[in-house]
Amino acid sequence: MNDYSVAPEFGEQAVAARAGAWLKRKAPYLIVLGLAIFGVAYTSLAQQPLYGYWEFLGVAIGVACVAIGWRQAPDRQARFILARTQALHWAAFLVAMNIVLWPSVNSFLNAPATGLALLLLLALGTFVAGIQVSFDIAVLGLAMAVAVPAIAWFKQSALFLILAVIVLGALAAAFWRHGGEAST
Fold first, then answer.
1. CB 135: neighbour CB atoms within 10 A?
2. Which of 176, 29, 38, 19 is nearest to 119 (CA)?
3. What is the pTM of this model?
4. pLDDT at site 149
5. Distances (CA, A) of 58 to 71, 93, 121, 124, 155
6. What angle do CA 176, 180, 181 make, to 5 degrees?
7. Alpha-carbon distance 29 to 49, whole Å?
8. What does the buried/exposed string (b/e) look like for 2-14 if buried means 16 or more CB atoms within 10 Å of the residue's CB?
9. Burial of 125 (0-12, 13-18, 19+ CB in 10 A)
């Protein structure tokens, strides 16, 4: 073996194993992010909000916050305070989300705007809960918040992006065909 060989802990298998372990640890957060983006997409396509869906996500994230914080709490009193604080926190955000869904308020928003507003409220609630409970929860809230303008940009730019993909595909097909003729 020469001096330039890669140590086993830095090999491709080790990197793949670390990436797999990281993905396994972060899977619940990625699933919640995917579910939140799905909610916005469904609301945009169906032109109506999913009334129980957003409440479910809020409650699920609230339960996750309590479960994560429960393991970190030093004693019974700290656990009680954590559970009470998170219950009040998420109740306030669920009330705000339901206010957005009231017909008298929702009539001012179209379906895509309603989905983005609900995602933004969920992102804010998740980020604030994460500050109190877990860095990973706070990062999930930030990812949801970043998804709001990203979704809006994608929706506005979708036609341009589709045209760009078609043009790139046509160019690739032309060069591929031209390259095949040159080698014969």
1. 9
2. 38
3. 0.71
4. 87
5. 21, 8, 10, 11, 25
6. 120
7. 23
8. eeeeeeeeeeeee
9. buried
